[in-house]
Design goal:
The complex is a heterodimer of chains A (325) and B (328).
Chain A lengths: L1 E3 H15 L3 E5 L14 H5 L4 E3 L4 H13 L3 E6 L9 H8 L2 H4 L9 E6 L14 H5 L5 E3 L4 H14 L3 E6 L6 E3 L13 E4 L4 E5 L3 H14 L4 E5 L2 E3 L3 H11 L2 E8 L4 H12 L9 E5 L8 H7 L3 H9 L7
Parallel strand pairs in A: 2-3, 2-4, 4-5, 5-7, 6-7, 10-11, 10-13, 13-14
Antiparallel strand pairs in A: 1-8, 6-12, 9-11
Chain B lengths: L5 H26 L14 H8 L7 E4 L4 H7 L3 H8 L23 E4 L7 H13 L6 E6 L6 H12 L4 E7 L2 E2 L2 E2 H4 L15 E6 L3 H16 L5 E6 L17 H8 L3 H11 L4 H24 L24
Parallel strand pairs in B: 1-2, 1-3, 3-4, 4-8, 7-8
Antiparallel strand pairs in B: 5-6
Helix pairs in contact in B: 1-2, 1-3, 1-10, 1-11, 2-3, 2-8, 4-11
The chains are: A alpha/beta (325), B alpha/beta (328).
């Protein structure tokens, strides 16, 4: 059956709520369907005590969800935009992430924070950011960023069942993407990347919206005789270095693509890990593609000018020694 | 809640002494350089901890703050395990991972202490939501200082708790100081209970150094919570006889102010009450001595307890076995 990203998230939530009475949804407007319609109809089906609207109080609702997770619920909290997670940082960083450790293993926080990130359609500087690197820096959190509807379906279900706090980052540009969902899909394990497409000359490591850009780039590269392999990380924390290592050992060239600004971005961490763990496999320096160092602008022309895309990936690959024009 | 017998009151007297002497012991350990970090003592605020926690069962959950030793002990956690945690020992409550500011004793309903002022309030509300959602009758209690009212999370949580009618008791220990800064200097609002009215939360301001008043008011508040008429904000006026942390020179307040408050010590005050009710001085001395021995024994054992094994430092970052030992 064909589903859009939004519909498939709703289906995953619906199924998990049916499967486990401890799963509760909360967030701003979620009982009314949510700002993007992900939770539409779920309050009617599962009741307004399980799909609860909250005030616009990111700090308190994140703490509320964390406290509830300590006491038997499996909350799925929606933070409407990742930009607003800044208001919940104390809780996510100081409480949620550290509870398991600080309690010496007595407690756990089975919480999923669904949020939505990335730039599209003139949402401007405070509703468009890619802030995943902030969270990847925090021990105790799991960070997931699906690249397609079917991936989102499986990863969200796995995240709800995991038992540790997960930041689940959806890209707004993918919300209208549609895919066919098989009936007997196997749920993906947390912490494993997937090979989206095999290739031999260069490994493109991407996640979230940039996987689509990598797929576009692969077509162009194929036209000039370059065979690119795409890894979709799916889970950013923990990072699946084994899948990266297997691919790099084959291609000996790596490009990392993300929409977040390059400076202090997750690509820097991946590049450092590859540099220290796989140095002997590399024929060329690791290359990164990401956003230049500026806030996301409002005007569509400016937004387009800033955002990295398939062309940037193609250009960067073709500048690699041995793959040049 | 049945009226306490004289024997119950004597147990509460003992509980206050245990906290006082425990904090004295922490201070001595800290002065000797045996406590890592910077512990915050609750000396002088014992009546609030004991008067509230006397009403709680193991199923009721408690979230405290950086100044939480007294609450944890009053809730019934083990003296030795609590002290061992403060000393950073392997058999401390949290195996040396938490320390003075992050005491957790889940089996006893102590679900956390946060070093970030006001950070515990929404957690307590969440625990109350879980109880409400799952039809359990237990309640949730958050202890915090008046300094927490400066944080947005305090106001956000009051609004949410009132809106959802959560069975959470917010207990403010208004000791007149947010760290080194007096209430007059950090807020125009003298009484924390004033914040309850806009959210239609039941509230009361009481003398927090009067165990009888704390006990009676907490009983009233908890009774409302158990009848789904929560939340409740109980403001207990008190005074910390210790500094903000061990080593605080307290230059922000006068010797006269401290001396005046020593005369209002909640333990001495309750002792006078028990004597008025006919309890013999010797009996009270014996209770104090018993508490002293308990703390002494706990201190000796905690100090002798093994230090954590360095090879365990990466344990318990995650619950899921699949995430064990990940390096990012």
């Amino acid at each position: 059956m064909i589903h859009s990203f939004i519909d498939i998230l709703r289906r995953a939530l619906d199924e998990e709520m049916t499967r486990d009475a401890a799963v509760h949804l909360l967030g701003e407007d979620v009982a009314a369907g949510g700002a993007f319609g992900v939770t539409r109809g779920l309050a009617q089906k599962h009741g307004v005590t399980r799909v609860r609207n909250t005030p616009i109080s990111e700090a308190a609702i994140t703490g509320l969800a964390t406290g509830a997770a300590l006491c038997g619920l499996k909350p799925v909290l929606e933070i409407m935009f990742i930009d607003f997670a800044t208001l919940a940082m104390d809780c996510l960083v100081n409480q949620t992430a550290k509870y398991r450790y600080m309690s010496g293993g007595q407690l756990a926080v089975p919480l999923v924070v669904r949020t939505q990130a990335g730039a599209a359609g003139g949402a401007a500087a405070q509703h468009s950011q890619s802030l995943e690197a902030w969270f990847i820096h925090v021990p105790g959190l799991v960070v997931i960023a699906p690249a397609s509807p079917v991936e989102a379906y499986g990863l969200l279900k796995s995240a709800i069942r995991l038992g540790d706090p997960v930041l689940f980052i959806e890209h707004k540009r993918l919300y209208t993407m549609k895919e066919d969902l098989a009936d007997d899909i196997e749920l993906p394990p947390i912490g494993r990347a997937r090979i989206v497409r095999g290739g031999t000359d260069v490994t493109l490591i991407a996640y979230s919206g940039m996987v689509q850009s990598a797929l576009e780039a692969v077509q162009t590269l194929a036209d000039v005789g370059i065979s690119a392999e795409i890894i979709d990380l799916r889970t950013l924390l923990p990072l699946d270095m084994a899948t990266i290592a297997a691919s790099v050992s084959k291609t000996h060239r790596v490009l990392i693509a993300h929409e977040a600004v390059l400076n202090g971005g997750f690509g820097a961490e991946i590049a450092a890990r590859i540099g220290s763990e796989l140095f002997d496999e590399l024929d060329t320096p690791v290359v990164r593609v990401g956003c230049p160092f500026a806030p996301i602008p409002f005007a569509p022309d400016l937004e387009r000018a800033l955002l990295p895309g398939a062309q940037d990936i193609v250009r960067a690959v073709r500048l690699m020694p041995g793959l040049g024009e | 809640m049945p009226t306490p017998t004289l024997g119950d009151w004597q147990q509460m007297y003992r509980a206050m002494w245990r906290i006082r002497l425990f904090e004295d012991q922490v201070q001595r350990f800290a002065a000797a350089g045996e406590v890592p970090g910077f512990p915050h003592l609750s000396t002088g605020q014992e009546a609030v901890a004991v008067g509230v926690c006397a009403h709680l069962s193991h199923e009721d959950v408690l979230f405290t703050s950086h100044r939480g030793h007294g609450h944890v002990l009053a809730k019934g956690s083990d003296l030795q395990a609590t002290l061992a945690e403060i000393l950073g020992r392997q058999d401390g409550l949290c195996r040396g991972r938490g320390g003075s500011m992050h005491l957790v004793d889940a089996a006893n309903g102590v679900l956390g202490a946060t070093g970030v002022v006001a950070g515990n309030l929404s957690l307590a509300a969440g625990a109350a939501w879980a109880a409400q959602a799952q039809g359990r009758r237990n309640i949730s209690v958050a202890f915090f200082g008046d300094g927490a009212t400066g944080a947005g999370a305090f106001h956000e949580t009051l609004n949410l708790a009132a809106l959802w009618k959560l069975p959470v008791l917010f207990v403010c220990e208004n000791n007149g100081y947010a760290e080194f800064t007096s209430r007059e200097e950090h807020s125009n609002v003298t009484h924390v209970s004033s914040f309850a009215a806009p959210y239609a939360i039941a509230t009361k301001t009481i003398d927090g150094n009067d165990l009888l008043a704390v006990y009676a008011s907490a009983a009233e508040a908890i009774d409302l919570l158990r009848r789904d008429q929560g939340p409740y904000l109980l403001e207990c006026m008190t005074f910390r006889l210790a500094g903000h942390y061990v080593g605080d020179a307290q230059q922000y307040r006068s010797k006269e102010e401290l001396a005046a408050h020593r005369d209002k010590c909640p333990i001495e005050r309750f002792k006078r009450h028990l004597i008025e009710r006919g309890v013999a001085q010797q009996e009270l001395d014996a209770i104090g001595e018993l508490a002293r021995l308990e703390v002494q024994q706990a201190a000796d054992r905690a100090r002798a307890a093994p230090r954590p094994d360095a090879s365990t430092v990466l344990e318990d970052v995650y619950r899921s076995p699949a995430l064990d030992g990940i390096s990012g």
